[in-house]
Amino acid sequence: MQTGISLYFSEDIEQNERTIERAHAAGVTLAFTSLHIPEETGVVYADTARHLLTCCQDAGIDLMVDVSPVTLDKLGCSRIEDLLELGITTVRLDFGFNARETVELSRSFRIVFNASTISAEDIRAWQAAGADFTRFAACHNFYPKRYTALSIDEVRRINQRLSSLGFTTMGFVPGDGRLRGPLFEGLPTVEEHRDQKERVALNMLELSVAGETDVVLVGDPGLTDKSWDALSCLSAGYLPLRAEIRDSYSYLYGQIHHDRPDSSEYIFRSPESRTTLAPATPFEPNAPAARPCGTIAISNAAYGRYAGEMEISRVDLPADARMNIAGAVIEADRAFLPYLVRGMGIKLMRP
């Protein structure tokens, strides 16, 4: 999963430096910042922006800057192309640029728009101006005010339309550490996530999978240590799942398995479990049992060429004499199972 963070000029320099360091360690590749937030006063943007850019560049993080024509004055630039000299290569345009200007800028910058407000008329105008939509991305807003954010269904509808045209899609989840003012109620794209801030990893997976969002960023400036750890794993393409596993199958602990790209709605299915992570010898059948959601099961010798394959039930499944019960994902982590799909990995951990 491609992940991102948010940086704000109102945060002190040392705090932003620490956030960038942790993001780098977590494998984050994108950071968002805005140069026209009303609450940010007394900021020397030119100096602070240069420092942030240097820190991000050193960390290998691309800084996406939310800009308008006012941005140039704040940064001491005479034209928007001067942002390239600062190292800014990705800009989110909210207002002030017509279709011709936008397409011309896309030859130098990666252009990001407000996903929720792109109209069919905008698309036609950009196409008429010769737009290459592979140079364009669409980033949903975050919404500080309660009940103003979108539903996951609306995000998916918008993303499906824009992805079909070639846009990369982006969105935000709230953090569970320091929240950003002035309301301090979280900065989500999806309203349901606002009151579930403590489940950062699950929110990110839901926005990615159910919302069909290519890049998921944390909107607030702070995360707990637990969420930084989860962000690191998600950036690496897997998520730790706590599980209780029987001694005979304890070899599964610590292994990273990925769901097949042709994902099943019924089970998480590991291709590695039959190849690089296969048990030394096939298991003989044992007493069959029902496989409720979260059950970890191994295909036994009676399943022929599928012997050794590890699967996890996403839904309740009946007993099968060809499947041995190895254990179960703990109840608290089963909510992740619908979103661990199409190549996403898991690492089974002791509770």
Overview in brief:
The chain has 351 residues and is an alpha/beta fold. The protein contains nine helices and 15 strands.
What can you see in these coordinates?
With 351 residues, this protein is α/β, with parallel strands linked by helices. It has two domains: 2-236, TIM Barrel, CATH 3.20.20; 241-349, Beta Barrel (Cyclophilin). The protein has nine helices and 15 strands. The strands form two sheets. It has an eight-stranded parallel β-barrel with strand order 1-2-3-4-5-6-7-8, surrounded by five helices. Strands 10-15-9-14-12-13-11 form a seven-stranded mixed beta sheet. Strand 1, helix 1 and strand 2 (30-34) form a beta-alpha-beta unit. Helix 1 (13-25) runs parallel beside helix 2. The two termini are 25 Å apart.
Mean pLDDT comes to 93
What is the count of distinct domains? Answer: 2
- Helix amount: 25-40%
- Major sheet, described briefly? 8 strands, parallel, barrel
Numbering strands along the chain, what is their spatial order in the largest sheet?
1-2-3-4-5-6-7-8
Which structural class do you get from the secondary structure elements? alpha/beta
What is the H-and-E element order?
EHEHEHHEHEHEHEHEHEEEEEEE
Parts with pLDDT < 50 across at least 5 consecutive residues: none
The CATH architecture of the largest domain can be given as Alpha-Beta Barrel
